[in-house]
Amino acid sequence: MVYVVGVGPGSGLYLTRAAEEIIDKAQLLIGGTRNIEFIRTSLGIKEGQDTFVLGSDLASMMDQIEKNLDKDIVVLASGDPSIYGIADYINRTMSRQEDSAVKLTMSNKEGSATETNRIPSQMDSIQGKENLVIVPGISSIQYAFSVFKIPMNDLYITSSHGRQPDYDFIFMHDKLALVTDSKIGPRQIAQEVKDRGLDYSFYVGENLSYHNQRLTVGSADDILARDSYGMCLVILIRWRDKDEK
Fold this sequence. Notes:
Radius of gyration: 21 Å
Number of strands: 10
Number of helices: 10
Oligomer: single chain
Shape: elongated
């Protein structure tokens, strides 16, 4: 069985009990260096538990999964695995592999042409993923809205992590959260806001849940006044009523 487990925003305090129980029984742990070390220091790696440190080559992770499907495998995902996380990639890849296996089996049977060419439905996709379980975690977005004491209602979620944001579309929303990276972070987003003359309040969370957490609230000019930021989540809100703030 493959479990994609959200380990929360960073601090062990926010690792769920469900995640702990599944990680405890895992025979193979897969994750980035930071997440593997997080489990090593917070829960410990048990005797008999193998680890595979994941880099940028996601195909190598799928090779490990395919070779060890007879084991309980846990893929560690930062935050929640379904919010710009690794769950979608694993889900799609395993589905393609299962579809290929089914078609190969059917092609070896007489009179199976009709079944082989049948268009799969969404329900087929859900029922076919019997070897995959996605375990939610507390995302950095949930954590940030809690510490800033802002409701998440009507929130638009997007990411600039490894991608070029569509600012024209993004800025159509009054409340949005952006998962960022080192290339497009608070300063770059603030510059886009300023260039368009928009009135957004910025809520920037750095190193969320860690001992060096830093929270910043201000305007685009306030954000641009700083030269650099750490690992960040950016919340933008265009308040319609002064009483809402």
